[in-house]
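ugh ok fine here u go
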Amino acid sequence: MDLFLKILTLLIIVCASPGYSFRHKTPASSFRRRDFMERCPLVKPMRSLQLADMMGFWYIIQYYSSSEETAEYKCMKGNLEMSDNKDITMKFTYFFINDPNNELMSGNITWYIPNFNDVSHWIHAEGFYEGVYNTYIIDNCRQDWALIMHCAEKKRSSRYLSALMLSRTPTLGHNVKVFLREKLPQYNIDLDYMFDVYQDDCKEGIGKWNCILWFVLLFI
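structure:
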């Protein structure tokens, strides 16, 4: 009995000591970090958004992509249209900055609106995207400018984030750009990688014809 009491007393002392745990504790911060990197950020709905204000032709003035560390694009433009069943499609074009041939690239994205009580949240309708690919309208000013963010939650990797600053004109005032950029860090967007998209030298094939001209001149 004396031996039993001694063992029991020892267990009580050890278990009561600071830092002791019967189970391995994973710091709460690691869970928060994992969740922070894997899940899309919470975005407050834009209750005042009118979908008609988002439709039509846009210049992409700045862009961010969590998978890119250098500016890749120029002359990026997009046109938003809404179908009769309320799906939204953007047809977009762009050039790669370092393409000597200035080959025009194009693509399209289609979204559906999961909840018409929040028309500022769209989900990509294409089935080939891995996980859930969300698009959020962060802010807009009727027919002048808009700020949108894409976020994809993937099963086997960190989330993917991108953002586009849109304008109806090829340029946007400095103060407006600063105002819109300041909205992005709360969504873990690093402004050092929010790049300008220049809207000049946008003639298709100009680089290719320059190469042909130089080739011809070499043999004259």
